[in-house]
Amino acid sequence: MSKTANTNLIMSDAASRRQRISTLLGQSFLFLITSLSTFAVFFIFYFILKDAIPFFKLEGFTEFFSSTRWYPSGSPAEFGALPIFVGTGLVTLGAVAVAVPLGISAAVCLSDLLPFKVRQIVKPVIEVLAAIPSVAYGFFALVVFAPLLQNHGGIILSTGVWLVLGPILALLVIVLGDLLIDKLRKQIPNPKIAGAIIFPILGTLTLIFLFQLSTRLLGLEISSGTNALNVSIILGIMALPTVVSVSEDALQAAGRELREGSYALGATRAETIIKTIIPASISGILAAVILGVMRAIGETMVVWMASGNASRIPEPWYNVLQPIRTLTATIAGDMGEADHVTGSSRFHVLFAMAFCLLAFSFIMNLVSEIIVKRSRKKLGK
Amino acid sequence: MKIQILAMTAAATVAATAGASDKIVIDGSTTVGPIAKAFAEYYMAANPDVNITVSESGSGNGAKSMVNGTCDVAIMSRPMKETEFKAAADKGIQPVAHVVSLDGLPILVHPSNPVQELTVEQVRKIYLGEISNWKEVGGPDKAIVTISRDTNSGTYETFAKLVMNKEKIGGKCEYVGSNGAIRQRVQSTPAAIGYAGLGFVDKTVKALKINGIYPSAETVQTGEYPVARPLFMYTDGYPKLGTPLYQFITIHLTEDGQEMVEEIGFVPVTAY
């Protein structure tokens, strides 16, 4: 510390020593806490790996990853976890298919369409979804939703198709129609006449397709309501608050200047949202999607209660109307009987599954990190 | 799920036989749990100095606790396995079985299902996936939805032994975590078949005749109903006569004990 003329501003040696020590103490304390949470991650990896490796030593890799026969309690025991991996993947994909379109549309609506006052009310209401305990979701899925799917599955599915595919196809018809009119400009120079011909044709074709699909679904009989579809929808709803709130934050962060700039260039609101705001906040939206995926893949209680827990690959593999089993539910369900005493493979196989889950979420995290970095570079931030 | 029943502390009591602050720790099957809890309440009402705790964590966990020496009584809905006996013997523990009651495993279907009767062979084929439609056993043209307890439970092991004859249940079968969940799934699914303890049969589900025998307390007791099992309490060695543990473990032989067993929906071992 350099001494200046004004001695009043100079601390006494003791005081400055005190300050230095307390700064050091505070810093090292905070550093300790930070490193503790980092170490926790390493310890989790270490302990799971420690108990997972004996399984692969005992049983090898081939059966675990390629066999479809899962009989951990049989004698001899069989540990084919392929259907369980497929089940986990199917449910996660299903949850993403529900949560991502819904969540991003809701986020766009919240950030760019709704007036501020309404948004202040709607956003917390959506976030309440995250506060409901997962066992309550599971109970709902098992006691209310599963019987509903069994008794009125056809009606639910066909209305769902109309609600989801209807708007998407309508948009598609408009875009396709415009493109066709452009292409046919040589043959039919008047765009109004071309439109009068093309739009009814495309519209009827789409309606016929939708009718065909919905009548086929209407006749469908769902024998068991505890299936991949049930769980996918519920998990999608559970992942919704994460997706909505993270991507809404990202859209908000795009900033007022960007929006005003876009309007100033003569863009409409739709063009501003689709061509400017969403590309600008794509990294945040991707992060939201990945967080949603993690929520869906790690959820245990709902899948244990309502997925049926049948360790079989559905036929065909994308058939979401059949019961499936997931990694998390298997770990939760088989824990009680599996221990060192009564057979070590059965104990270690659960750790092998836990390790696969951990590795997957680690990779997802890494990927999201890379995506965010790349898109930042592209945007020149 | 852990349920603890704590003894009410009574200020001045004459403990009939028990010494001061005796403790009995019970752990194991969710099926036998209600019996153990009823016995514990009954025993503690008479002997306020004895503190009994009952945890329900599954038959396998009961055996585990016994081997680890963390419980006095392991309640189990299946006999101990060879591996468990061996692990206990290695630690110097001698599990002694006490059969506290009998239980049947009724095969349950939806009340709207016209099927009244199946054979053990047919049930096995249904769970193997060889019979996959109700019309093959005289029912409507509907795909059968098989529902089983998870492989963790004693109920599952009993079913696997008595019905499946150690053959493996087909992959299409759905697994649920409790007897109550089985009943819930069966009563809401017209094409379902499941199995649960005798105490879980009510109007919302239909129990089938198996090999011509309807599951009831009588047919279980006489051994006519083919899918029945004893329920156990295991202790380390036979308890010393006169100790609280001895008194507790013999409650099922008294008239009160048998009434309690019946009230919960199981079948007493002896007729009174």
From TrEMBL, chain A:
Spell out the subcellular localization from the entry: Cell membrane
The secretion signal range is none
Indicate the segments forming the ABC transmembrane type-1 domain, all copies: 85-368
Q: Which domain of life is it from?
A: Bacteria
* Transmembrane segments annotated in the record for this chain: 21-49, 81-114, 126-149, 155-181, 193-211, 231-251, 272-297, 349-372
> Does the record carry Transport as a key word?
yes
The answer to keyword Phosphoprotein applying to this record is no
PROSITE patterns referenced in this protein's UniProt entry, alphabetically = ABC_TM1
What keywords appear on the UniProt entry?
Answer: Membrane, Transmembrane, Transmembrane helix, Transport
Which InterPro entries is this protein grouped with? MetI-like, MetI-like_sf
Q: What is its main location?
A: membrane
Q: How does it sit in the membrane?
A: Multi-pass membrane protein
Task: Please give the PANTHER family that the UniProt record associates with this protein.
Answer: PHOSPHATE TRANSPORT SYSTEM PERMEASE, PHOSPHATE TRANSPORT SYSTEM PERMEASE PROTEIN
Q: What is this protein called?
A: PstC family ABC transporter permease
From TrEMBL, chain B:
Cite the PBP domain residue spans from the record.
Answer: 14-240
- Coiled coil region boundaries: none
Pfam families per record: PBP_like_2
Q: Which Gene3D superfamilies match?
A: Periplasmic binding protein-like II
Top-level taxon of origin = Bacteria
**Statement: the UniProt record of this protein carries the keyword Zinc-finger:** no
Keywords assigned by UniProt?
A: Phosphate transport, Signal, Transport
Q: What is the designated name of this protein?
A: Phosphate-binding protein
Record organism:
Pontiella agarivorans
Key word Transport present: yes
Region forming the signal peptide:
1-20
What's this protein's family per the entry?
Belongs to the PstS family.
Role summary: Involved in the system for phosphate transport across the cytoplasmic membrane.
* UniProt-listed InterPro entries: PBP_domain (IPR024370), Phos-bd (IPR011862), Phosphate_ABC_transporter (IPR050811)
